[in-house]
Amino acid sequence: MTSRRSLVVCFVVTSLVVAACSGGSSSTGTTSTSSVADGTVPVDSTAATTTSSSTSTTTPQSTTTHPLIAGLDLLPAGLGGALFGAGVDGVLGYVSSILGDPSSDSGWADPAASGVACSGTVVRFVRWHDLSLMFTDESPAASGLRHFASYTYGPAEGADIDPWGLQTEGTIGVGSSVHDLQAVYPAVVVNPADELSGPTFFIQDGLSGFLTGTAATDQVISFVGGAGCGE
Question: What sign does the dihedral 8-19-77-162 (CA atoms) show?
Fold first, then answer.
């Protein structure tokens, strides 16, 4: 189970370098465990065509003006049809086909030289505003080739989020209540704030995040998927 210490390290790294990271590796059967050639991406044929269900009524924006985004479900094995361990070009092409061009791209950098606590010899962060993808050449998903390793999704500040409408398969998204989170995922672990971290939740290895608090009416702030920096 992902520790609260891992979550807070991920959160700090995300805040400083807009990294995508997680304290645990994906444990689902669909996650790649070997290197995948760059430029390829396992894609679920239904991922980009299936319309997601409505999110919780506590979500900040209205679905009438901000439609949900299909094909980018927040999964412990990846982001929609883009699975952890998949090649960089394939993942970027897949996400860009849904969201358009990224808002920023760090380019490849040496983690040690940039002060980022990531495994591997190179790391790269590509953002679509409040959605950040992390790529590296070493993670639990693959080794030796540059690949998709993790993501973070949540507003940098305030209640607004762009892109809006990404959810788990259980229709939990940013703004969903703790009550709904626990109803959809009865085994979810909700941790109160301590000296290391704010309130957090843990659904399973590869899918966790942060909360405004632990009361039933508190809300999901952000999601962390996959495994990356700060392990």
Answer: positive
Bond into 163 cis (ω within 30):
yes
Domain-located, residue 66: yes
**Strand ranges (E), the chain:** 74-75, 78-79, 82-83, 104-105, 123-128, 131-139, 142-153, 189-191, 200-204, 207-211, 220-226
**Cβ pair 122, 100 in contact under 8 A:** no
| 3-state secondary structure at position 14 | helix
Which pLDDT value is given to residue 67?
A: 72
Query: pTM value?
Result: 0.73
Mean pLDDT of the chain: 78
Residue 60 CA: distances (Å) to CA of 46, 130, 174, 209: 28, 15, 8, 17
Range of the domain at 201: 4-226
pLDDT for the residue 166:
96
pLDDT at 39 over 50: no
- Provide the domain count of the chain: 1
Domain annotation covers residue 231: no
Confidence of residue 118 (pLDDT cuts 50, 70, 90): confident
Please tell me the predicted confidence (pLDDT) of residue 228: 66
Residue closest to 76 by CA, chosen among 65, 85, 67: 85
- Name the region of 176 (left: φ>0; alpha: ψ -120 to 50; beta: rest): beta
The CA-based angle 139-151-192, given to 5 degrees, is 100
**Cα 191 to Cα 13: distance, rounded to the nearest angstrom:** 20
What is the pLDDT at residue 34? 38
